[in-house]
Amino acid sequence: MSIISGDLVSVKLDIFKSGMKIDYSIYREKNREFYLLCKDVVLTDELIERFKDLTYPHHDVYIPGAQYDNILREKNKQKNKLKRTVFKKSYEQTKQNTSKMLDRISKENSVPIEVAEELSKTMHKQIETMEISHIIQSINSVRQVDEQLHTHSVNVALLNGIIGKWLKLDKHDLAALVMIGLLHDIGKLKIPQDILNKPSKLNKAEFELMMKHPIYSSELLENSGFTDERILQGVIQHHERVNGMGYPYGLNIGSIIDFARITAISDVYETMITKKDYKGGRSPFEVLSWFAEGCYSELDFNYVMAFLESMVEELKGKRVRLSNGKAARVMFLHVSNFAYPIVELDGDIIHTSEDIKCVSIIDE
Fold first, then answer.
1. Do 145 and 25 have their domain in common?
2. In this structure, are residues 246 and 240 in contact, taking their beta carbons and an 8 Å threshold?
3. Structural domain ending residue among the three candidates 225, 254, 281
4. Which strands sit side by side in the sheet containing 319-322, from one edge to the other?
5. Would residue 122 count as lying in a domain?
6. What's the total number of domains in the chain?
7. Which pLDDT does position 2 carry in this prediction?
8. Alpha-carbon torsion 83, 85, 88, 93, what sign?
């Protein structure tokens, strides 16, 4: 692109596609004179080919500068849409493959290491190559009751990797974090389904059995040949809490490894954000607000703050659905007030509140 006298900008013809509606003027240049090519038309393949003949060999045309900005925005929007579609397809395939792996673990009472490693590599690649906002958007989506375990496993693995990336951990630590997230709950395969899916509060005996699932997960991994202590300890400790009130061992903060502290954040966020059959779903703004207000004070404070500060940046500029049904865009969000971001609605700046609040993020 180059700026010509006045407000005309030179662009290549290849930015125009058949079907585009042109409600402005497009010019060609010859001997420093500008000639109108078209105005107020819908482009066709034939018309574009005609323009190529007229602008040979460089295929440069000239448009108003303001329109160039609009074209760039639309081009970026389409590019972003394509990336989102690619990730969604990959994400759904990862969930299917994880479901198959969990079925195999249940039947064979063993974890296929090569399958788990391949899934971990796939998710590590998604985190490195895809837009983080697309991943978070998929995690925030409501899931069905019958896909809880495999979807939860994938989501916690992705969240672990994202947090690790935000913390600038090296690729080996990232790989371990993703693997912990993927396998942290496999011990639930040993818990009866009527307890896992019980639509009411567990009784004491049921909860005591449920609290054993981290031990079952770790035992499955050890018996399957896993030797990485980061993974083994991260899995067995993911329900331990820094105030010593976690399970299965009630460890204090000095005994809980960093990877388990990170996984605890991912696990809590994913569990709270996802719609359950008896708990109901919560918006990401509500869940993050709970984190910020210290409702999860049993989690590692430094990692929670790093998570919240990074989420602020990811949520800025996102389209949201308000409680009145209208769509708005997040303009400003602060760690101290996650629940009520400032949004732009139909050209007006709105301070959301309990009366009008953000209830979900819109996929765009």
1. no
2. yes
3. 281
4. 348-351, 342-345, 327-332, 319-322, 358-361
5. yes
6. 3
7. 44
8. negative
